[in-house]
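Example record for the data management plan.
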Amino acid sequence: MAASGYRGAMRRVAWCAAVVLAIAGCEGSLSASDAGAHDATLDALAGDATIRRDAETPRDAWVERDAAVPDRCSEPLPITPGRVLFVGNSFTFTESMPTTFAHLVEASGFAPAHVEMRAVGGQSLEWHRADTSAEGAPNRVGEGWDVVILQELSTRPTDAIGDPAQFKDDATWFHDLAITAEPSCQVVLYETFARRAGHPYYPGTFTDPADMQAQLRFHYDDCADPFIPTHTTVVSEHPVLVAHVGDAWEHVLADGEPPRLHADDDYHPNANGAYLTALVFFGTLYGRSTIGLPSFAIDPAIARELQQAADAVTGATEPVPAIACPRVLPVGDTLPIDLGPNAVAGWATLDMVNDEAGPLVSAAGVATDAVARVRSFTGTQTGGSAVNALGLPADVSADSLWVGSFDGHDAALALGAEITVTGLGTGLYRVELFASRDGDDTGNGRLTRYTLGDRSLDLEVRDDRDRAATFEGVTPDLDGAITIGVGVSPAGRARFGYAGSVRVTRTR
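Corresponding structural encoding:
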């Protein structure tokens, strides 16, 4: 559904998705690239897909009908946001949090969201308000979005060292701009999180993290209601929401660490913290439980704890469509995945060193909720054999992704890449990996090691036409994911390891 179609439907239903999140600040020591403006479309996630929805079904009515309809999987999904804009600073862009949010949406079974951000290190809503550049937040918000997310400088909504009045005035200004540009916009404020225990703010500026979080919580809630409703100059279709990210952090850290959520500077998020933040946004916007969503790069056990904390704060209990009504790979069917720059009909193509594709369609043409991702490869190549005895298309056989080092075998041993397939149902699977590269690299060979759980298989990729590494009886983890490590084998002298194709077949 195009964005305009979504907006029209949103005016007819009870939930609209434009979110304004208050801008969080970057007050730490960051690299030049981190401290600069991050103004980007998340290209891999963008695009308004056709939405499988009944545009006349209000969100609240969907929830009520679920209790009365035995087969909820036959019901159309509710309307969801098509376009989401994050406005903020390093509390938004650190650890690519908006990208994680978009991945969660994609994995949930809802239509993918087009996600963009305007995030500038160390800046406040007031600074963004005065930014008249073409890429500045006022111009971007003025384009009209289903969701606009604004995040305030992390100390401004506090009495101790902030300026809560200015925060509320700026948030109201952005709220009115968002609603003027798109009347069906839902405004959400991003309640940020307190500094880590032990930070120099304690016990002088704030008594402790609980004191700082209490101040943040009060002013975000006060801004959403009553300040903005009292001072707005526009008529909004929806009340302002607050994404209580800081409350979720406080919930997790109530008993101390682990897990750690802060980075080494004790106030930016680490990967765990960014993941938890994205979970709260998902639960706030979609009203569904985050339990069972993929952990991505997070330890699965930690991810489950963070999902429980996010749900405790949002109050969401209903599972996402991909969990309540999973589209699983049928027994005997295969997911064909090509790694490398050649696009091949009928194969999901991952053609970059960090890439993803999905939801995947099986070899038999069955739509599934599976998503394939690759991470940390070094490059691509098309110098493999186009001829093979395994029934692979020529372009699948000839290209691959590689990981390694021109500095030699020892340097290559320190590197590794990953292939992950998520969204698999329970059962047993066969995983077949193939790669080919002409020549033996001046005598070094191309012995590649694939690791799946506690099992490892080596494959000599040199001039390969008929060999594959096959793992039988593979069981997905609790998140329904299979992850394969790729690198050079320590049993050889190779400088480069390769992955050209993956076929995942459900055997039981």
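Summary line stored alongside the record: The chain has two domains: 3-323, 334-506.
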